[in-house]
Each structure stands twice: as structure tokens, then as C-alpha cells.
Design brief:
Blueprint lengths: L2 E5 L2 E4 L5 E7 L2 E6 L5 H11 L10 E4 L2 E4 L46 H10 L6 H17 L11 H13 L1 E2 L2 E2 L3 H21 L21 H11 L3
Antiparallel strand pairs: 1-2, 2-3, 3-4, 5-6, 7-8
């Protein structure tokens, strides 16, 4: 005998120990290999095989080897009428194109804008501690700048054309028919300090744009090596 009956619909192969399903389906006795040695797994598989054709599955309790079906609870009919549902129509909005985020507007200071000269002085104080010769040269630059630029106007009043007019005034200044200031001197003594002062005002949000960004530097001419030292030592004393 190759199989030994374990319980209803379950037989165990004597040699391999595997469990087989033996039952009647459609009027025929069928044998189906369950490919397991575990009795619990085999019972679960058999329960799935014995499911009814309509999809319902009979559930049993096994007590001392006897199967006891669990009665299904009868549905309770509701005596009260179902609550009425009020239909609410909500208009569907069409998908709009994504709106680009608008950058936040920088808050403008409520206090009056300081004059340009205040930012020049603050820029100069930031250069403290340099070599004495360098500090003296910076002081000479500011003295020269104030000769041609009206630094007492509010820092918000300056436009790029105003700066061009100041540079042109310094360019047109002549002594005995010759230009007082060369292009290199105008760049070092006027353009650079003004750009630094307006950059400080831009950083503190008094202005929204540095006017020097639209003003070109002065054209410079090469200085001969023999006269370089003499011109550099004399231009700062003007």
C-alpha cells in the first residue's frame, strides 16, 4: 500500500511522506499532489480546493478530528428608511498654466537716504589698518573725488549719466593746456571709490542698482618706464 489515509480527503505517501488530496469533484475521484509534508498547509490547500463554484467557501472547525460547519449569520434587514442624500454639484476648474513665482519686492527704508559722502567715509573706514602710505593715497583720492563730484546729494539721486558728467568734468580739467588727470588716475581716484560706495548702499538696500555698472572706465595710456615713478609720485599730490 503506497498511501495511508490521514484524515478526510488527505492521504500521505508512505515512502516520500508528501500529502495528497483525494476527493470527488464533478462525479470523479481525483488525486492531486499537494507538495507539502505539513498537515496545516495541506488542510489550507484542501479548503481552497473544496471551495464552491459560486466563490463561497465553507468554513469548518476541526474538534477532536471532527469537522463542524460554522453557521453563517443571517443578514439583518434595516427597518428604518435609508437617509436621503443631497446631491451637491461642484464646478470643476480647468487646469491653468502654472504661474511663475514673482520675486518678493525688497522693502525700501522708511528713513531718508543718507548722502553719498557718508558711504564714501564708511568705505574709507573699512580700509583702516593698511600701510600708512596706502591710507594717505586713499585720502588723496577722496580729496580729488570731492573736487569734481557733488557728494552731498542723497545716494538714491544718482543716475549713470550723472556719474558720466562728473568723470567728463575731471577729464576736461586742464592746466596750461594739458589734462590735469590721466585716465588711470580718474579710474583709481574716482571710478573705484564711487563703485565701492554705491555697492555699500546697494547692500543696505538704499538703491536697487549700482549706477557704476553702466559707466565705462576711462581709457588709459601706457606710461613709459623712465617716467612711471615720477608721474605716480606727483599725481596723488594734485
Amino acid at each position: 500500500m503506497r498511501f495511508r489515509r490521514v484524515e478526510r480527503c488527505l492521504h500521505r505517501h508512505v515512502r516520500s511522506g508528501e500529502l495528497w488530496f483525494v476527493g470527488r469533484q464533478g462525479g470523479k475521484v481525483i488525486w492531486r499532489r499537494l507538495r507539502t509534508h505539513d498537515l496545516h498547509v495541506a488542510r489550507t490547500t484542501v479548503a481552497m480546493l473544496e471551495s464552491k463554484p459560486n466563490g463561497n467557501t465553507a468554513i469548518f472547525l476541526v474538534v477532536d478530528g471532527n469537522e463542524q460547519p460554522i453557521p453563517e449569520a443571517a443578514p439583518v434587514a434595516r427597518s428604518a428608511p435609508l437617509p436621503q442624500v443631497r446631491q451637491v454639484l461642484v464646478p470643476v476648474q480647468s487646469e491653468a498654466a502654472p504661474v511663475k513665482a514673482v520675486p518678493a519686492v525688497q522693502p525700501t527704508p522708511t528713513s531718508p537716504a543718507p548722502p553719498l559722502d557718508e558711504f564714501l567715509n564708511r568705505w574709507r573706514r573699512g580700509k583702516e589698518g593698511l600701510r600708512p602710505a596706502t591710507e594717505a593715497r586713499l585720502d588723496d583720492c577722496l580729496t580729488m573725488l570731492r573736487r569734481y563730484v557733488d557728494v552731498l546729494r542723497p545716494v538714491t539721486d544718482y543716475r549713470p549719466q550723472d556719474i558720466r558728467d562728473y568723470l567728463a568734468k575731471a577729464r576736461a580739467d586742464k592746466v596750461k593746456g594739458r589734462r590735469r588727470l590721466k585716465g588711470q588716475t580718474i579710474n583709481e581716484a574716482m571710478w573705484r571709490p564711487l563703485h565701492s560706495a554705491f555697492a555699500l548702499a546697494l547692500e543696505e538696500r538704499f538703491i536697487d542698482r549700482n549706477p557704476l555698472d553702466s559707466v565705462e572706465r576711462e581709457k588709459t595710456t601706457p606710461i613709459a618706464p623712465s617716467t612711471r615713478g615720477r608721474m605716480q609720485s606727483g599725481c596723488w599730490r594734485m
